[in-house]
Amino acid sequence: MSVLEQIGRPLGTHPSANPDVFFIEGSSEQGAGLACFASKPLENGQVVLRAQDPVASTVVAKFRKEVCAWCFHYTFGDILKFKLETPRRRGAAWFCSTSCRDNWRKLIGDVGWTAIAAFEDGLARSSKSGVSNTEDETCSLQDIETAWDNALKSGEKILATRRTKPRWVPPTATLTHDVDLDEARFSLSAFISFHNHPHTYDQVKRLVPTLKLYTDSRATLQGHIDIYLYMLSVLPLDSPIMRYVTPLHMVTVFTRDSGNSWGIWGLELAEELFAYCMYPTASYFNHSCAPNLSKERIGREYVFKAAREIPEKAELNVSYLGGAEKTLGFRERQERLLIKAIEEEMARTQKNKVGDGFRPARRGCE
Ligand SMILES: [Zn+2]
Ligand SMILES: [Zn+2]
């Protein structure tokens, strides 16, 4: 069976993370989509869901030393005081406190840490980074299928080489763009969750997939294939994480990331994207311009509360736009990073001309 045939959602019911308070069902208003409904009348202020740990998350490359990898606290430009270093003394994650560092390390576990250290140390061989702004193009489902088939064959060759020549050093500079690094770290964090908590793979698989990220952008497809081949090249061969480094797991994560992940936004005016996270238990709340749930982030936890009295069986909605937190599609993230790169390039070349232009339009409400 091809990768694309396997990425669909499992059939059957979608378990609610808090069934006493809400259930998940198909919604006539959402087309074929799913929605959350109150299991009983809810009081104003009642907690509907605590989404505690993201299944996958990453602080974007530009802010890794300024935004805590555990609680997403921002230092306003100071370098975070606490970090974890790889065996080659590369910083792998930065934190605002020792407790954030210790919590993160405990959640990742030894298997996860070994994989992350190998991932980061592999990057040490290539120091280039930036954002690609070459022309992109669309591609067909057949293109996607063929590209991943070829990637699988290349991957098998890499593994065969590593098994027969333990001292083989993988080709350098396979991950040269910040966008790819963010996506790579994000997918690795998902694979570590799958290993540590196998039910999280089922949670991710139940989310609505989209292939638009690939049909719209061959560069994105190629970026993900590069990530796959990079991980096969550098993660320890005996790591249990390796069983998730497959085209199927890659495509499963990325087709859910797009459209399901939350952006963690810092400075509202500057529109800076600090991090993005996938909270599958919270992904079934649909958007409304007049939401009946409030959403608040406390560290890495999202708390959803009834914003007014809600009758039994009413659909539960959140605003995707409210406050400083928004969801952001894959391409929007890429475009955002590209815009930042253009701004920085302009700042370098035309010092006084940066200001009003190049501000991305806010996503409107229909
Ligand atoms: Zn922290
Ligand atoms: Zn709206």
Automatic annotation (TrEMBL):
Gene3D superfamilies per the UniProt record, alphabetical: 1.10.220.160, 6.10.140.2220, SET domain
InterPro entries: H3K4_H4K5_MeTrfase (IPR050869), SET_dom (IPR001214), SET_dom_sf (IPR046341)
A GO CC term assigned to this protein in UniProt: nucleus
A Pfam family the protein falls into: SET
Domain of life per record: Eukaryota
Organism: Serendipita indica (strain DSM 11827)
Protein name: SET domain-containing protein
SET domain span: 209-321
